[in-house]
């Protein structure tokens, strides 16, 4: 029997990983500059994935720059406004031929003012509804994920996992009455997002593409500032559960609306 030194074994292992077809999985995340999106980028990079982290700010966010410095061969920062067709087309051209295992639609608009601004959400309240805002919510929360899917579906088809994920909310439910008549545009747009994702699940069933929707639960993100809400958990906890659930998704799960731990979220 042929014997190998420890250096020879190490070389063989490295060679095996370099064989054609052996590659790290890839995730494209929209809205990865803060909150849940940023945490997804951190978690996937730490797992050894290639992370395409997109943002719409004028300059790359410091948090993403630090993450890229930590994982220079894994994290790729891209500027992307999901409401801009030209930017989506440009990114798709740059990523042509790049398999994307998980297309993670996280970018969204919840409100246009800080939570501390009591009058800042008037455009989403009955009596002062701002219909120009509705356009922004629909273009971001509904059209954005659809545009991304149209642009990158071939990348997803070419991947091993073939998963399209959308971050939604329990506020999109129709089977139970809302706790309050607030956030009209956010609630309406997220309900429309759920419908769009269900259509995509049917559209790509024969391609083996898995489409899933998540209610992440209450997450203590940066936009809450010093406000501490009962039951809200750190981003790492919510995202860790979602990634574990995403890992286990199979074609029979396509079209499901899920809680972060994989249980069904009521529609």
Topology at a glance:
Elements: H1 6-17, E1 26-29, H2 35-46, E2 50-55, H3 62-70, E3 75-79, H4 85-94, E4 102-105, H5 131-157, E5 163-167, H6 184-203, E6 210-215, H7 235-247, E7 257-259
Parallel strand pairs: 1-2, 1-4, 2-3, 4-5, 5-6, 6-7
The ordered string of helix (H) and strand (E) elements is HEHEHEHEHEHEHE
Distance between the termini: 61 Å
What does the main sheet amount to? 7 strands, parallel
Fraction of residues in β-strands: 5-15%
Structural shape: globular
Strand order of the largest sheet: 3-2-1-4-5-6-7
Tally of extended strands? 7
Structural class: alpha/beta
> What is the CATH fold-level name?
Rossmann fold
CATH architecture classification name: 3-Layer(aba) Sandwich
The oligomerization state is: single chain
| CATH homologous superfamily identity | NAD(P)-binding Rossmann-like Domain
What is the total domain count?
Answer: 1
User: Any low-confidence stretches, pLDDT <50, length ≥5?
Assistant: 1-22
In helices, the fraction of residues equals 25-40%
Rounded average pLDDT: 88
Number of helices: 7
Global Rg: 20 Å
| CATH class placement | Alpha Beta
Throw out a few tags for this protein.
alpha/beta, Rossmann fold, globular, 267 residues
In short:
With 267 residues, this protein is an alpha/beta fold. The protein has one domain (23-259): 3-Layer(aba) Sandwich (Rossmann fold). Helix content is 39%, strand content 12%.
Report what the structure shows:
The chain has one domain (23-259): NAD(P)-binding Rossmann-like Domain (Rossmann fold). 37% of the residues are buried. It has helices spanning 6-17, 35-46, 62-70, 85-94, 131-157, 184-203, 235-247, and strands spanning 26-29, 50-55, 75-79, 102-105, 163-167, 210-215, 257-259. It has 7 helices and 7 strands. Helices cover 39% and strands 12% of the residues. β4 (102-105), α5 (131-157) and β5 (163-167) form a beta-alpha-beta unit. The chain is an alpha/beta fold. α2 (35-46) packs across α7 (235-247) and α5 packs parallel to α6 (184-203). Strands 3-2-1-4-5-6-7 form a 7-stranded parallel sheet, with helices on both faces. The radius of gyration is 20 Å and the shape is globular.
